[in-house]
Please model this.
Amino acid sequence: MAQVTVNIMGRQFRMACEDGQESHVTKLATDLDRRIEGLRTQFGQVGELRMIIMAALMVADELDESGTKLKRLDAELSALKDARVVSTDRDRVAQDAVAAALNSAAERIEAAAKRLNQSPGPGVPLG
Model:
């Protein structure tokens, strides 16, 4: 298990993290420190604990909004996948109908050509 030292509110904290996650934990701590400093600028000195709680609530709110958005996007993706399946099925049915119509037309043309070639009388046989 790796360890990293982060700076939050002018204090150093030694944190444990998984190997290879040191830079990620440092980035998260820097973001939290930035949020706390923003709150301090906005509200003044209201106490460290209150500042940390306000920053934590901001992060929790963003996480909640992201979760809601993710659920909505998952539902939209699922609907789009369903629509694609329906569209593919409709395309397949339409292609089959066009192929059947072309085959039917070809059969009628061949039958007409045979009748014309079998008819008695002067002229040059077709086909």
